[in-house]
From TrEMBL:
<keyword id="KW-0804">Transcription</keyword>
<dbReference type="Pfam" id="PF01965">
    <property type="entry name" value="DJ-1_PfpI"/>
</dbReference>
<feature type="domain" description="HTH araC/xylS-type">
    <location>
        <begin position="224"/>
        <end position="322"/>
    </location>
</feature>
<dbReference type="Pfam" id="PF12833">
    <property type="entry name" value="HTH_18"/>
</dbReference>
<dbReference type="GO" id="GO:0043565">
    <property type="term" value="F:sequence-specific DNA binding"/>
</dbReference>
<keyword id="KW-0238">DNA-binding</keyword>
<protein>
    <submittedName>
        <fullName>AraC family transcriptional regulator</fullName>
    </submittedName>
</protein>
<dbReference type="InterPro" id="IPR052158">
    <property type="entry name" value="INH-QAR"/>
</dbReference>
<dbReference type="InterPro" id="IPR018062">
    <property type="entry name" value="HTH_AraC-typ_CS"/>
</dbReference>
<dbReference type="InterPro" id="IPR002818">
    <property type="entry name" value="DJ-1/PfpI"/>
</dbReference>
<dbReference type="InterPro" id="IPR018060">
    <property type="entry name" value="HTH_AraC"/>
</dbReference>
<dbReference type="GO" id="GO:0003700">
    <property type="term" value="F:DNA-binding transcription factor activity"/>
</dbReference>
<dbReference type="InterPro" id="IPR029062">
    <property type="entry name" value="Class_I_gatase-like"/>
</dbReference>
<keyword id="KW-0805">Transcription regulation</keyword>
<dbReference type="InterPro" id="IPR009057">
    <property type="entry name" value="Homeodomain-like_sf"/>
</dbReference>
C-alpha cells in the first residue's frame, strides 16, 4: 500500500472565502499532517495555487503556495475543494487554466477528486461525463442542469467511481478523505486517523438525511391555502380527492396544477411533507416513534421506518441520534 502525492488546488491570492476554508483545511489536515506511526512515508501534500490575480472584493484570506497550478500534473491524486462563488451564482466559467491542468493531470493518470462545489470544475473539464457524481445538496440541481451528461446523485456523502471521486459539501469532504486513506493504506490506518480526529470512521446513511424535505413555496396562489391546510393536518388520512375538493378543483385539475407548481405528484408531495414532519418531531421531541408515525400521518412505526430508510437513507433512530434534541435553558431571575 502506498500513500503517494496529493496536489490540492488552492485559490491563491483571489481570497479564499471564509465558508470555503473548511474544504481547504480538510485535505490539508488529512494528507498534510505526517502520521509516521501509522504509515511512513505519509502523503506528500502539494498546495498548488491557481495564480489568479487578487481582487479587492474577494472575501476571506489570500494564500500563497509553494507550488503552481502546473504542478498538479504528475501528482498521484488531485483534489479540487471548491470553485469561486460566481461559478455557482452567476454561471461564470471555471478558469480555463485550471480546466486545462485538470485534463492534463487526468490524462497523466492522476486520481481526480472534488469536494463540495469542486465537482463543477471536474464537470467542466469533462471528467464527470457519463459518470455518477455528487456535490453539496444545495448545488446538485444546478450541477445536473448545467452538465446533463453527469449522473448526479444528491443522496450520498460521496461517490467513488474508481479514478474519479466526488463528495457532498462540508463534512462529507472529510468522509471522502478518510475513504481515500482507507483505499490507500487500509482500514486500520483510516480508523486510527479518524479516532485522532475525533470523528466516525464511517457515517451511516448519506446526505439525504440533511436535505430540507419541505417543498419551496409555490407561486400558484390558488394552491397555497390548501397546501398550508394540508401541512397543518398531516395526522389525518388525506387523499387527493380531499385536497382537490378543498381547493374547489376537479381531481385532474388539482393533480396538474400541483405537479406544475411543485414538480411532483400529489401523493409524493404528501409523503414528503409527512416525512418532513417526522424529521421535525424526531429533532424537537422525545416522543416514541409510534406516536411520531401517527402525528405525521404515516400510521405505524414500521411504515415510518420503511419510508424513512427509503427516502432519508437512515432509520428514524439513527436520524434522532444525528440530530439530538437541544436541552431547554430556563432563565432564573436574580
Amino acid at each position: 500500500m502506498s500513500a503517494g502525492s496529493v496536489a490540492l488546488v488552492v485559490p491563491e491570492e483571489i481570497g479564499v472565502a471564509f465558508w470555503d476554508l473548511y474544504e481547504v483545511s480538510i485535505p490539508a489536515t488529512v494528507f498534510g499532517m505526517p502520521q509516521p506511526d501509522l504509515a511512513d512515508p505519509w502523503y506528500d501534500l502539494r498546495m498548488c495555487g491557481t495564480g489568479d490575480r487578487a481582487s479587492e472584493a474577494a472575501p476571506g484570506f489570500a494564500l500563497r503556495t509553494p507550488y503552481r497550478l502546473e504542478d498538479i500534473v504528475g501528482a498521484d491524486t488531485v483534489i479540487v475543494s471548491s470553485v469561486p462563488d460566481e461559478v455557482l451564482s452567476e454561471g461564470a466559467p471555471v478558469s480555463p487554466e485550471l480546466i486545462s491542468a485538470l485534463r492534463r493531470a487526468h490524462d497523466a493518470g492522476a486520481r481526480m477528486v472534488s469536494l463540495c462545489s469542486g465537482a463543477f470544475a471536474l464537470a467542466e473539464a469533462g471528467l464527470l461525463d457519463g459518470r455518477r457524481a455528487t456535490s453539496h445538496w444545495m448545488h446538485t440541481a444546478l450541477l445536473a442542469e448545467r452538465f446533463p451528461e453527469v449522473e448526479v446523485d444528491d443522496s450520498v456523502l460521496y461517490v467513488d467511481d474508481g479514478d474519479v471521486l466526488t463528495s457532498a459539501g462540508m463534512t462529507a469532504g472529510l468522509d471522502l478523505c478518510l475513504h481515500l486513506v482507507r483505499r490507500d493504506l487500509g482500514a486500520h490506518v483510516a480508523n486510527q486517523l479518524a479516532r485522532r480526529m475525533v470523528v466516525p470512521a464511517h457515517r451511516p446513511g448519506g446526505q439525504a438525511q440533511f436535505i430540507d424535505l419541505s417543498v419551496p413555496a409555490t407561486d400558484d396562489q390558488g394552491l397555497a391555502p390548501v397546501l398550508d391546510w394540508a401541512r397543518a393536518h398531516l395526522d389525518r388520512p388525506l387523499t387527493i380527492e380531499d385536497l382537490a375538493r378543498r381547493a374547489m378543483m376537479s381531481r385532474r385539475t388539482f393533480y396538474r396544477r400541483l405537479q406544475q407548481a411543485t414538480g411532483t405528484t400529489p401523493l409524493q408531495w404528501l409523503l414528503t411533507q409527512r416525512l418532513s414532519q417526522a424529521q421535525s418531531l424526531l429533532e424537537s421531541t422525545d416522543l416514541p416513534v409510534e406516536r411520531i408515525a401517527e402525528l405525521s400521518g404515516l400510521g405505524t412505526a414500521n411504515n415510518l421506518r420503511h419510508h424513512f430508510l427509503k427516502q432519508v437513507g437512515v432509520s428514524p433512530g439513527a436520524y434522532r441520534n444525528a440530530f439530538p434534541r437541544q436541552p431547554q435553558v430556563t432563565a432564573v431571575a436574580g
